[in-house]
Amino acid sequence: MKVVRESNHSTGEAPPPATGRRGPRPGSLGAALHHQPFRRVWLGSLASNIGTWMQNIVLGVLAYQLTGEAWFIGVIVFAQLGPMLILSPIGGALADRVNRRVLMVSIAATQTVLSLALAAVALSDTPNRVALVLLVFGIGVGGALNGPTAAATLPALVGREDIQGAVALNSAAMNASRVAGPILGGLVNQVGGPALVFAVNAATYLFVIWAVATVKADFSPTGRRGTTPWQQIREGLHAAHSDRVVKRSLITISVFSLCSLVFIYQMPLIAEERFGISGLAYTLLFASFALGAAIGALSMGSWFANVERATMTKAGLVVFSAALAAFAATTLPAVAFPAVFITGGAYFVIVTALSTTLQMRVHDDVRGRVMGLWMMGWAGLVPVGGLIAGPIIDAIGIVPVLLFGATAALVLGLVVNLREPDLELVGAA
Questions:
Q1: Which pLDDT tens digit goes with each residue over 75-98?
Q2: How is 323-392 classified by DSSP, letter by letter?
């Protein structure tokens, strides 16, 4: 392994852009959208993500309707996101070994077929719970393999100097889909039930297949040839461990995801038991969270683009803690809606700041594998937290679990330190 020193700025930020460049400010939202390859893939992913969140929101409601208990919601969430915990490093290794275009198109095509099968199972008045879990698990495996690949492809679509704007836009698209997806999912569910929602989601994968298959960009692998997948995974682990900021970023997102994000997938239970709302009102509650998250992500590519990412991470964690505590303590919808909106905004300030930090510090040779570790910590540990929290919620209620998550975020905000004197790229020799 080798370390290449790229700048000597005390802020740990990227070196200043070359003068004379025309167009939007480097690193901004407009600069990222200025790249046609990124724009096409971004739009295709946005359409697919809307379908995914149509499916996710209806899956959570269906799981709660089938049992009326938190534990089965936890099982469904684990089936969906649990593969991230185990398979993301493998997905990262694949991203550095094989053609990423072929890999991403193949995964999306497989997820299309599995979503259609999920629609077929949901046609029953009493869907088979085992079949639901297995099909959701299969879709989750695809997501675990695709996540690191899509993240590792980002510099090929925009270039290094515009990564922050691209990460902010990707995060915003993810959360815009959390706004549009639940609302559309709720409407489609009213018209044709869960089966129609799952079928619509299957169709949206065609957008990302088209975008990735037709875009002009370099999707070739960047890792060294002649190494085994296990050796590649070890190289990724070594690269992450050798940089203090990368290591601390991964630890921060892992603890945060495990302890503080249980509320996202327990939202149907919280809405009904704490606020007495369901149906469209619940959908709007979740959409409020997602809208806040989208604005939080966009702020990192606009208003806060020039603020040190270490500072934004700490501030985001503290604000998240306060907002989640308020959301946990209230039983008033008038308080819950703004509280969950602020929670979402702070959540994706944190995620965008940490993800951009990783993208800026990691060499292309190991980017897929390090981003696989990111996906494992960010998405993979959420369902573990859900599985642990489910029986606790059934025993003592949701409020103590939410307050514990708020406390964990506050502690991270007080102790985490992501500042470094130099920007270093860690890569393979």
A1: 887 787 778 777 877 777 787 778
A2: HHHHHHH---HHHHHHHHHHHHHHHHHHHHHHHHHHHHHB-GGGHHHHHHHHHIIIIIHHHHHHHHHHHH
